[in-house]
Amino acid sequence: MMAVFLLVALFVLVLGSYTDFRTREVPDWVNYGLIFCGIGLHGLLSAVSWSWWPVLSSGIGLGIGMGIAFAMYYAGQWGGGDAKMLMGLGAIIGFELSADSFLLSFLVNVFLLGAFYGLGYGVFLAIKNRKSFGGAYNKLRSKIPEFIKRGIVIIWIVTAGLLLSFLLLKNLILVYFGAILVILLAFYHLYLFAKSIEKCCMIKYATPSQLTEGDWIVNDVYVKGKRICGPKDLGILKKQINALKRAKVKQVLVKDGIPFVPSFLIAFIVTLLAGNVFFVLFSVL
């Protein structure tokens, strides 16, 4: 029966990835359909096997997916479609009380592979819009005080020397420590990179008729002194879109997100083929 659950999840992920790439959104009927399908199929299995565990497993999976989804959504990292998709995947996959739980392995892979996916997509956008990206990056970098830049360069050199020494000593704990330092230092460049991508490639104007529920509005929109929508809303609502249309607002500034559902698909396939990526890397090291 687990094979059926995974097949349904794979089909929905392929469909969701396609719509996310094309329209930057996943229809609610796809996400809610996956949630109800997951609970329904596990409920059917519970009835056939005379056991509460299958439907309870689906409920726990839904709860885990909901907790992570809400955290990522309210942190501004995922859109509503991404959040609902993860909830549906939790419901259809279900939770297992084992170290090699498919759901837990999948979630670990989502975050590990999702980071590389986001970075790769950002690089693609930077190359595609290299002129505007270069200008935005240099402008942001010029605002950073010179002593901070020099300090970061010195820290990079010292860290690289330490990591090389740790590798020569072949001390695994020290190598991990050095790798963590390198990753922390990389956040400086990743921050500049991400903000530059956002400014030059992911912010655009859209008319109210082009907006869809869940779009991120960059600036507050006021009409006759009354606020209609803005960045604090964590995604525009349908009633706010209608209010913009009634007020005949010509256009608003919208932040376009990265289509993240395809990273779920990648993580799902990797989980099917290799299991938990973290355990695989740990065993290699």
Question: How would you describe this structure to a colleague?
Answer:
The protein is mainly alpha-helical and 285 residues long. The protein folds into three domains: 2-114 and 259-284, Four Helix Bundle (Hemerythrin (Met), subunit A) (Up-down Bundle), CATH 1.20.120.1220; 127-201; 203-255. 72% of the residues lie in helices and 6% in strands. It contains eleven helices and five strands. It has helices spanning 2-23, 28-49, 53-74, 80-93, 102-128, 130-142, 146-169, 172-201, 238-246, 261-274, 277-284, and strands at 203-206, 216-217, 221-223, 226-229, 252-255. The strands form two sheets. It has a three-stranded antiparallel beta sheet with strand order 1-5-2. A two-stranded antiparallel ribbon has the order 3-4. The chain is flat, with a radius of gyration of 22 Å.
Keywords:
3 domains, 72% helix, three-stranded antiparallel β-sheet, mainly alpha, Four Helix Bundle (Hemerythrin (Met), subunit A)
Q: What does the main sheet amount to? A: 3 strands, antiparallel
Cα separation of the termini: 35 Å
Order of adjacent strands in the largest pleated sheet:
1-5-2
Strand content: 5-15%
Helix content: over 70%
SSE string, helix = H, strand = E? HHHHHHHHEEEEHEHH
The CATH class of the largest domain turns out to be: Mainly Alpha
How many strand segments? Answer: 5
Q: What's the architecture of the largest domain, going by CATH?
A: Up-down Bundle
Radius of gyration: 22 Å
